[in-house]
Amino acid sequence: MAGLPGINPAAAPLPDVPGLVRQALLDEVWLTPKPGLVDSANNGSHRDMDLPMFLHSIAAISPWFGTFHALGFEHAGRGSGEMLRLIRPAGIACEQAMYQATGGVNTHKGGVFSLGLLSTAAGRLLGQGEKLTAAKLCAAVGEMCSGLVERELVMARKAATVGERLYQQFGLTGARGEAESGFLTVRQHVLPYWHQEADPQRRLLNAMLRLMAVNPDTNLASRGGLTGLRYVQRYAARLLKQGWTTEDLQQMDSELMARNLSPGGSADLLAVSIVLAEVAA
């Protein structure tokens, strides 16, 4: 790092965002109990994936976050609007590594998108000599994704992907909208409450519930329509209001599995939250 332009070698060590991403993915998948999701207790509402598969997937995709970071640094002088095009080949290769590790199962496509953008933003800020903060990371992601929803969802005449179909059906913008907003849901509903829980396990579970209560999760809408989405949002909000126990989350897990509901979008945002919270620490 000492030889990079704009970096003071005597300054405090810079956050290793690709390393934080890998750890966030591991923290997320091991977190238990996560209602409807794969964890160390069960496979949630998923018949085609389990914990070992997730661990193989994380091992396969983790090296690519260093690639995203390097691309962000290399092209730091380019316009924000060019960055998605420049990192797209790495994104496709990262997804291919995931599919190869999982036998064709989509374990982390949303995470590759969101966390790849965060890693790129970190490299970009580093290359510009900027201080790495959670706020600047989110702003950089928002700038890179400016106009993304308009281009890929609003202007799409025929729904070719699940995301496009859910936008046309319900107006949900999914991971694209969250990235274009600079992870507004995380910034408004998770990070301000991060230290309310002293216990690390409860902190992450509380963050997960906060996300589930407000996130317009396209994974839930895909499986259960708006009815399923609203059911999970109300359930999570109720637990937050009344105060929750591990047994409450285990019961919620059973209820979501019975309805085949999985808040995968909130799981992706939890990993984003972990990275941003570590950068802000």
Automatic annotation (TrEMBL):
Keywords assigned: ATP-binding, Glycosyltransferase, Nucleotide-binding, Transferase
EC number(s) from the headed UniProt entry: 2.4.2.52
Reaction equation(s) it catalyzes: 3'-dephospho-CoA + ATP = 2'-(5''-triphospho-alpha-D-ribosyl)-3'-dephospho-CoA + adenine
Domain of life, source organism: Bacteria
GO molecular function, one term: triphosphoribosyl-dephospho-CoA synthase activity
InterPro entries in alphabetical order: CitG, TriPribosyl-deP-CoA_syn_CitG
HAMAP family: CitG
Family classification: Belongs to the CitG/MdcB family.
Annotated protein name in UniProt: Probable 2-(5''-triphosphoribosyl)-3'-dephosphocoenzyme-A synthase
Protein's gene: citG
